[in-house]
Write a structure and sequence with these properties.
Blueprint lengths: L6 H12 L4 H13 L3 H14 L4 H13 L3 H14 L4 H11 L2
Helix pairs in contact: 1-2, 2-3, 2-4, 3-4, 4-5, 5-6
Length: about 100
Amino acid sequence: MNEVPDKKEIRLRRCLEKHPEEEESYSRLGKHLFLARRYDPAAETYLQGLRAFPRSQKLLLNLGVVRAAQGRKEEAGDLFRQVLALDPNNAAAAERLERLTAF
C-alpha cells in the first residue's frame, strides 16, 4: 500500500537526505512513520539508521517497538536484548522486554 507522505514526513525525509550523519534524523522519521502506523517504512528507516549507527541503543529500541507492533515478538525481544547487552541499565529496554515476555 503506497501512502502519500504528509508535509512533516517530506520535511523529515529531506532532513535525513541532508544529514545522514545524524542519528536523530533516522529516529525522528522512524517515529513519525510509526505514529502514523506505517510500520514497514518505520522499520526500514530504523534499519537504514542502524547500518550507519550499528550500536545505537535508540534505533535498536525503536526498531524493537516497531517489531512488537507488527507482532514479530521474537525479533522484538532480540532487539531489546541487544540494547541491554550494550547497556544493562537501559530501563526502557528492560521494561519492554518484560512486557513482551509476560504474555
